[in-house]
Write a structure and sequence with these properties.
This protein is an alpha/beta fold and 349 residues long. It folds into 3 domains: 136 residues, Rossmann fold (3-Layer(aba) Sandwich), CATH 3.40.50; 54 residues, Adenine nucleotide alpha hydrolases-like domains (SH3 type barrels, Roll); 74 residues, Elongation Factor Tu (Ef-tu), domain 3 (Beta Barrel). 27% of the residues lie in helices and 27% in strands. A 6-stranded antiparallel beta barrel has the order 12-15-14-13-16-17. It has a 5-stranded parallel β-sheet with strand order 3-2-1-4-7, with helices on both faces. A 4-stranded mixed β-sheet has the order 9-8-11-10, with no helix packed on it. Helix 1 crosses helix 8 and helix 4 packs antiparallel against helix 5. The protein is globular. It starts with a strand and ends with a strand.
Length: 349
């Protein structure tokens, strides 16, 4: 096949590229520039330089064509502005989920032509179920990235390949050494895709500023401190509160009055956090699952909760956990599984 391969300069996408090339596919590597001018100014350096040095080396050795596409403006309009709007409303968005659905497998798919498929270095698999393509969790559950891909519509998954999805990270790293890739020892990237070394708090400070407000103890309504803006806090947060006598946890926010509610009794029995509602659902089958006993996770990582789901008349879905989760936050995605089969996702209301 003729395949467009999304590359980042990292080990995973580079190994994916070489695996496809060794299978005699006609591959072209694509690097997407999504860094924003504000971040470039903050860093006082070009963050693309190292990425492009790495991927150019990989492509040069394998004689693979590399295309560089600038998507900075589109990324700001389709991902960053949405993130800022959600945070301003007191919610906790996930920019990486929207980067995948709106940019990497959104605008990029709209702009390229003449390819049979698009591939990436994501840790994910796909499977046809009743004629619909679903995501499937990878054997390496720590690296599994289906959480970040679960907002993609099923029809887009038809033409997306994940060449390293069946491999544990240790084997991918071993393949990088077998291929003698220039980036074989490069560390894995961490954090939100467009930020890199630009801290998320600094990103929020740049766009939303600082506005002093009160830290209020939930149980007593006493003001126990101040903060720089409710947008720096999310439910379940412990770090960054800056008060002694804790540990203190964020338990809620009043957006209109710029108040952050905190508590030392976050794990008390009468503070159960085992229920929420999702909207804007994306089900790979095209409909809410008929099997109502499933598993769900509200963030990237291996941990899942057993849960029951119940469709509501307005199209939303009620989710009841069999155990508690202390970090349920409006705006985050909840992703659902039946065994290794990923069924889709919805946004926590």
């Amino acid at each position: 096949m003729k395949i467009a391969v999304l590359t980042s300069g990292g080990v995973d996408s580079s190994v994916a590229l070489r695996l496809l090339e060794e299978q005699d596919h006609d591959v072209t590597a694509f690097y997407l520039k999504i860094w924003l001018e504000d971040e470039l100014t903050y860093l006082n350096q070009c963050p693309w330089e190292d990425d492009l040095t790495q991927i150019r080396g990989v492509c040069r050795e394998a004689k693979i064509q590399l295309e560089i596409m600038s998507m900075q403006r589109a990324y700001f309009e389709r991902v960053v502005e949405h993130c800022i709007s959600e945070v301003r409303a007191g919610r906790t968005p996930n920019p990486d989920v929207f980067c995948n659905s709106r940019i990497k497998f959104g605008l990029f798919l709209e702009q390229i032509t003449g390819f049979d498929a698009v591939a990436s270095g994501h840790y994910a698999l796909t499977r046809k179920v009743d004629g619909k393509t679903h995501l499937v969790a990878t054997p390496d559950l720590i690296k599994d990235q289906t959480y970040f891909l679960a907002n993609l519509p099923s029809h887009k998954l038809d033409n997306i390949l994940f060449p390293v999805g069946h491999l544990p990270k240790t084997e991918v790293r071993s393949l990088a050494h077998e291929f003698n890739l220039p980036n074989k020892n490069r560390k894995d990237s961490q954090g939100i895709c467009f930020l890199g070394k630009f801290k998320y708090r600094d990103f929020l400070k740049h766009y939303l500023g600082i506005k002093t407000g009160n830290l209020v103890e939930k149980e007593t309504s006493n003001i126990v401190g101040t903060h720089d803006g409710f947008w720096f806090y999310t439910p379940g947060q412990r770090q960054g509160i800056g008060l002694s006598g804790g540990p203190w946890y964020v338990v809620g926010k009043n957006v209109d009055e710029n108040v952050v509610f905190i508590s030392k009794n976050y794990y008390a029995e009468d503070h159960k956090r085992d229920h929420f509602v999702i909207a804007s659902c994306n089900w790979f089958s095209g409909a809410t699952p008929q099997k109502h006993s499933l598993e769900v996770k509200m963030r990237h990582g291996p941990h899942r909760h057993r849960c029951q789901i119940q469709p509501l008349p307005d199209g939303r879905v009620e989710v009841s956990l069999q155990s508690q989760d202390q970090g349920i936050a409006a705006g985050q995605f909840a992703v659902f599984y039946d065994g290794d089969l990923c069924l889709g996702a919805g946004v926590i209301c």
